[in-house]
Specification:
With about 110 residues, the chain is an all-alpha fold. It contains five helices and no strands. The two termini are about 40 Å apart.
Length: about 110
């Protein structure tokens, strides 16, 4: 790609992002979302986060499922989830999970 094509691509992506994100802000008050759809949209961020995090925890770099004790990311994720269920504090869970992951990397690798 030439420099001009790269800049055109960046410009089109900026425009597409701006239009798609501002559409609801500009016409949102004219559109009514059904109550059931609104209730389902409450879970969209959690589903998106799970779709990003789950493959990182469950797959090895080759893309195969790894559910054994050598998967330190999965072990740290399980430990962090357990910590959250006990304490109910998201920030502490993140710090605890990162500490467990770092400890496992130092100890096992």
């Amino acid at each position: 790609m030439t420099d001009l094509e790269i800049w055109i691509t960046i410009g089109v992506l900026v425009l597409a992002t701006a239009v798609s994100r501002s559409a609801f802000w500009l016409v949102g008050h004219h559109i009514t979302i059904p109550k059931r759809v609104g209730e389902m949209l409450r879970y969209a961020p959690a589903c998106a986060l799970a779709a990003i995090v789950a493959p990182d925890l469950l797959l090895d770099p080759a893309g195969t499922l790894q559910l054994d004790l050598h998967n330190i990311k999965l072990l740290a994720g399980i430990a962090a989830t357990g910590y959250y269920l006990l304490r109910r504090n998201m920030l502490e869970m993140i710090v605890f999970g990162m500490l467990v992951l770092t400890g496992l990397r130092i100890w096992l690798e």
